[in-house]
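As agreed, record copied across for absentees:
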Amino acid sequence: MIERYRQLVNQLSPWQIALLAALVYGAWAAFVNSEHGNAVALKAGLVQGSYAFVSTWLISFIAKWMLLRWGFSQTVRWSAMSVSWLVMLAIPVVLHTWQKTPDLVEAILPGLAIGSLYLWSYCQQLQAPKPE
């Protein structure tokens, strides 16, 4: 299973991974808000899907760029993960601060936990392209 995940990570571009995140998180947001009507569900799905797309694309792009640029050593992997993680943290903190979210940490913690697991696995599984 890990080998299949590694292949998938190395085959998909950051755009494709971001699209998958947008579909999953957007559908979830729409589903959990569906009891408030179709318009609210659609709005929630589009907002969450858009945020998931931008955030996932950006952190995947940064991590992949750093690894391709400076190599695939463990030091570079941890550096790529750290820089990308700080960007991943900054986006919801800025958005929730702007919106004056009262429980900011509680609001961002689930996404931060899932995003951290994704980012760690992405940085660990990404490999150098094979020469042709």
User: Anything to note?
Assistant: Residues 38-70 form the longest helix (33 residues). The CA atoms of residues 55 and 97 lie 17 Å apart. The mean pLDDT is 90.
